[in-house]
Design goal:
Helix content: under 10%
Structural class: mainly beta
Number of helices: 0
Number of strands: 11
Strand content: over 45%
Radius of gyration: 13 Å
Largest sheet: 7 strands, mixed
Distance between the termini: 40 Å
Shape: globular
Order of helices and strands: EEEEEEEEEEE
Length: 126
């Protein structure tokens, strides 16, 4: 059974940093690309960042590029999202996601996702 458990969210001020963590279990973590999505109130869930299992390359949404960094530790079955220079518009529930298929190297759409975590709230005040 796939399980993804996020942690690290909180309330911060604009310009601050946060590091989100996601602990994965129930599947061969090293063989699947992983991603982070977010959903703000009244909005659809959107792609934030993804990291490939094959060569650890990354892709980011334009809105977070140069501010957020995704990484993974296969020894710990964990994926992280370092968020710097946070803005009020980054406020959302952040979800960890596992690609539904090893052939999906960059799961950037909700339909690419096998399983979601429960989410962790990030609130950035101005």
């Amino acid at each position: 059974q796939v399980q993804l458990v996020e942690s690290g969210g909180g309330l911060v001020q604009a310009g601050d940093s946060l590091r989100l963590s996601c602990a994965a279990s129930g599947f061969t973590f090293s063989a699947f690309s992983m991603g982070w999505f977010r959903q703000a109130p009244g909005k659809e869930r959107e792609f934030v960042a993804v990291i490939s299992w094959r060569d650890v390359t990354t892709r980011y949404a334009d809105s977070v590029k140069d501010r957020f960094t995704i990484s993974r530790d296969n020894a710990k079955n964990a994926v992280y999202l370092q968020m710097d220079s946070l803005k009020p518009e980054d406020t959302a529930v952040y979800y960890c996601a596992a690609a539904r298929d090893p052939f999906i190297l960059y799961p950037t759409r909700p339909s690419d996702v096998l399983s979601w975590g429960q989410g962790t709230q990030v609130t950035v005040s101005s």
